[in-house]
Design brief:
The complex is a heterotrimer of chains A (574), B (260) and C (275). Chain A has helices at 10-16, 21-51, 58-64, 76-111, 120-139, 166-195, 208-239, 265-299, 306-319, 335-361, 372-389, 392-395, 397-403, 407-437, 443-469, 483-487, 489-505, 507-519, and strands at residues 69-70, 73-74, 251-252, 255-256. Chain A is an all-alpha fold. The radius of gyration of chain A is 24 Å and the shape is globular. With 275 residues, chain C is of the alpha+beta class. Classes of the chains: A mainly alpha (574), B alpha+beta (260), C alpha+beta (275).
Amino acid sequence: MSGHDHHDPGFIRKYVFSVDHKVIGIQYTVTSLLFLFLGFALMMIMRAQLAYPKADFSFLENIFGEAGFVGGTMLPEFYNQLGAMHGTIMVFLGVVPLAVGGFGNYVMPLQIGAPDMAFPKLNMASYWVYFTGGVVMICSFFVEGGAAQYGWTSYPPLANTQPHLIGQTMWLVGMVFLITSSLLGSVNFIVTIVQLRVKGLTFFRLPFFVWAQFITSFLLLLAFPPLEAAGVLQLMDRVAGTSFFMPDGLIISGSPAVNAGGGNPLLWQHLFWFLAHPEVYVLILPAMGIVGEIVANNTRKPLWGYRSLVYSVIFLGFMSFIVWAHHMFMTGMGQSMSIFFQTTTMIISIPSVIILTALILSLWGGSIRFNTPMLFALSFLPMFAIGGLTGLPLGLAASDIQLHDTYYVIGHFHFVVAPGTLMALFAGVYFWYPKVTGRMMNSALGKLHWIGTLVFLNGVFIPMFVQGMAGVSRRLYDQTHYEHGQAVQEWTIASSWSAWLLGIAQIPFILNFFMSFFAGKKVDQNPWKATTLEWAAPSPPPHGNFATEPEVYRGPYEYSVPGASDDYSPQFVK
Amino acid sequence: MEESIYGWWLPIDISVNGHKVDLLIDMLHWFMVVIFVGWAIFFTYCLVRFRAREGHKASYETIKAKPSKYAEIFVVIFEVVLLFGLSIPTFGASRTDFPAEGDDRVEIHVVAEQFQWNVHYPGADGKFGSTSPKLVDSENLVGLDHSDPAAADDFVTAGIMHIPVDTPVVIRLTSKDVIHSFFIPIMRVKQDAIPGMAIPMQFEATRVGEYSKAIACAQLCGNNHFTMSGDLFVDTQEDYDAWLAEMASGGDEEEEEEEE
Amino acid sequence: MSAPVIRYIDEPHPITGLTNGKLGLWLFLASEVMLFGALFSSYILLRVGADSWPDGWDVLNVPLATLNTVVLISSSVTMVMAWVGCRLNNLGKFRFYMSLTIALSLVFLVIKTIEYKPKFEHYEAFLADGALVKGYEGSESITGHLDENDLDKDYILFSPDAVQHGTSGDDEHSDHEKGGEGHAEQIRINRLDIDRLTNFGPKHSNFYGLYFTMTGLHGLHIVGGIAVNLYFLLFGTGMFRSNPAQFSNRIECAGLYWHFVDLVWIFLFPTIYLL
């Protein structure tokens, strides 16, 4: 584009194949919000089967056709497809692209005072590769046999047992696209943060959000390739007939498997969890970053222990690479290996405790404004606390014996990513909406959205701890087959109704999101009276972001500085 | 089973070692409650005391929080104690301390398949006949080699497991097709059944009873994963011996399957 | 509307000492290390767990692979020369060495194809228990060639390799040298006597699976490198003239990538062929 000043690039180049990080950020945000709602819709259908097993769902059959239903009853394979794709969509197409691709792309370059990402074209490629991966995933619903149905973890040999169903093959191809997209994105993020910080913005003056994105990018960069390797190996198993994950002597559906054998099913699990545990931190770190920004802004005081927050995040990122086998305690691992992974798991809980404590201590002595983003950000804290604490019995192998692969696990990680991360992401949407559009979101609708979401999210996930405690296995199409399932079936029903009400509770958000775009109150460049650099740019920022290149004079959260005329001293004001 | 063995918390425990698991789970949950309530009280107090209002200003200085340091140290110590005091020994014992051969113990092979638990008993001679995947068919569920003399009195049940009370049971767990997970909630045991691997596990029942569908599958194994249950019968030694004798003579394996 | 000016595209950052492109490339290579690292780890795990594992030098074509190693290392050298041409502002030199690099990489791929092809035409029939195949009583398997039209028939006309009974992983190149003439007489095998019939492609065994997966993925990296180099050769002249500093940076990055691909091969070659 260089050398073509004053040239209007046209609609397509400006809004579709744009290289502007802000447009790409918006593309990511809108696409991933759509995927989040799709993943949520799949879950609401699953909840129908769970609450009322094998009931007559003719109205669903009318929508989804006869492939997944017989006489109105949902088929187990359809349920399994919903389950596998709910997980995949939420993690790889919803939360990560929103937290990293959306917020990271839009906010991070602004916060470091850069005019754009270091590699704008790569950034565009990253989005379109992600988009393609998403399209492949969606298309897999419409092929013969439907989408992938072996859980989002796709454990072989199960995932290899039906090579004629191409849903799983498409899942693998889609994953390769999504991984490639993440790699392109993470290289871009790291280079941008290292090279393009504006004058005066040292590493320890970076907003916490940028730190979170920085570490997240390293996790994406280094943890995803092993999954790509695993995906290639599984693809070979399915397409080329190899048996990397297929041991000798398999009898599948009564007939001997015709393959070389000699493979190892646990190899997949090691490669998968080597990614998927850091992936958990990919989900949670940007959320912590968002919460840090909003808490500092709305308590009107500096974050407590900024440096210890940063060190904790770095330590979390490092440790997340050596805890993966705590997902595999029940695979017959030996005592020494289980001791190692239990110990690292307990160690990794410490920085999480420090981060949470620091954020709560930041409230002390503040002057807390309860606006919509702050309400969401504050709810993140207890929700993430529940998610983190319930991880302890799963990280200790002895209690994991009872709780592994039960609903307790589902409750635990959903508390981290749904009431946890999602609350933070909503907070981010409300917080940066005025920057992106130049208009405020409606506060009353926002608060309605907040209370409904908070109540019903808890309604969905708290029953899962009870189910798990009772011993109900996860991924059951009909838990009432078991007596222990019947004993807690009323909790399942409560959870399902909460889920549907949670869906209704999102209506104010959707209305607010679109209506505010036209009718929201117009704002100036710094409506929250915040200190970080993105508020130095106009709302919305033009191409190139800043009218004049800003310079940074102080740390990121200089609120209520004694002697200052205002209660905030922005980084960019001398 | 009139008596309710399943409820809203952990189900009853009918095993010798289950109480250690329960103790750990209970302690962890008390710990969670203490920590969470502590946090929540502080959190709520802050929200009320430091709410924005007329005449209230935020202070630039952050608090020097000694109590939070103590709280963090408490968390660390508690985790270390549970880790080394309870979790590692309990998990280790369940995976390594097997009753020695020759002791009074019952050995069973469990072969998982989509979607049932096949239980292979050695019969009166106490020796398992050799098996081979090549011999598996709809009649010969575990691929027993009938030319092996040790296999003569072996029998296999599908989805039914009888064990004697107060006797250690050692199970050799494997799978014919995909990964399953052998889970008896009331016994506090769980172990993945992985094809290509034979993994030992153990438990000892303390209470006689018929526990229908007490054996569950905890790992997604296909469309009918949800029906992959097994009935557990904890017999007195006499009943168990009688059942073994019946199975060895008249009670043919096929008959047993048809019952299912 | 003015395009934003992004810094450190052609001059290095004062603190890191790197241009954006070079830092990005190093990060990309770090992730590539993780990718191939995962594959090498898988190789180790599968090999350690395997009942039997053929010796690479026995079943693979080591002379061809050695030749390929030489070709690839030479291409790394010519890549450096192309970059030197850039730095010296010598377009002719750049073009010459870049073309040479691309030619050498194509030679690598051709040799790879020559190495791959016979494996797909060479078959192994694993016999069922008690199979009666004249001359092969008690053998586990027979290796040889067959007419691929026979694959779905009830019986197969099989031309076994030289009369060595049974062991899988026969000497591949002895087979080439004889050009098929050394085959014993065709035998007729009933399909029911065969448990599994496979060529020496990826599905033959985990050894061949890993061999094809790892060298194939490496080959894809070569193809990617060729595409990039070809782009610079064909469309780089404009930038070479307008912004030589940035252009030589780009060539340097392409070179780093190319050396990395070379390095992967230097690990692959001994791992698969010699260990």
